[in-house]
Write a structure and sequence with these properties.
Helix content: 10-25%
Strand content: 15-25%
Low-confidence stretches: none
Number of domains: 1
Number of strands: 3
Structural class: alpha+beta
Length: 62
């Protein structure tokens, strides 16, 4: 699957488009095909490394 992600905090130059393996879904899960996505201010704060929005890296944005 195609994904936009970052492996370290920083500016927009840290975003990369990569091909990742399809996630495995369980019997209680649903897989949704995404045709388009966007970034909002929360995504920017996460990418910049705001302590209020700490996430494990690498982080898939969309």
């Amino acid at each position: 699957m195609k994904a936009v992600l970052f492996r370290e905090h920083g500016g927009p130059d840290n975003l990369s488009s990569e091909e990742l393996p399809m996630p495995k879904i369980g019997p209680q899960d649903v897989m949704i095909r995404v045709k388009a996505c966007e970034l909002n201010h929360l995504d920017i704060w996460v990418r910049q490394g705001s302590p209020a929005y700490a996430v494990p890296l690498p982080h898939v944005v969309c």
